[in-house]
Write a sequence for this structure.
């Protein structure tokens, strides 16, 4: 993520800089971004040591770079996960939690204080 000692920035660092100065996202933004992932891969059996990060698409939407980096939603987080995913319900579509990562990263590369959820349409 950071701390590269080579003169050329890593592709991930360069991508973060090219996204511009975005405000720190809240948990609801994290959830909304999960919906926009458009990836076939989903959460794995446990959170990856390398956390997923929000990235911007060419269309200006946020999505997770690696949905497979999420692990299952811990029982202690399930009520909160359901509550957050429910904020995304609209037009008869219902969203439920599918994954959690305790160190999910914002677009700027900073960890979300309470982790991040991966929500899917039910």
């Amino acid at each position: 993520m950071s701390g590269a000692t080579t003169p050329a920035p890593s592709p991930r660092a360069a991508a973060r800089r090219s996204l511009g100065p975005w405000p720190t996202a809240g948990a609801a933004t994290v959830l909304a971004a999960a919906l926009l992932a458009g990836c076939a891969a989903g959460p794995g059996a446990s959170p990856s040591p390398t956390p997923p990060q929000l990235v911007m698409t060419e269309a200006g939407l946020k999505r997770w770079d690696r949905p497979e980096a999420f692990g299952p939603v811990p029982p202690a987080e399930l009520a909160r996960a359901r509550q957050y995913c429910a904020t995304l319900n609209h037009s008869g579509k219902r969203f439920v939690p599918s994954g959690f990562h305790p160190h999910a990263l914002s677009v700027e590369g900073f960890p979300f204080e309470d982790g991040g959820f991966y929500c899917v349409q039910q």
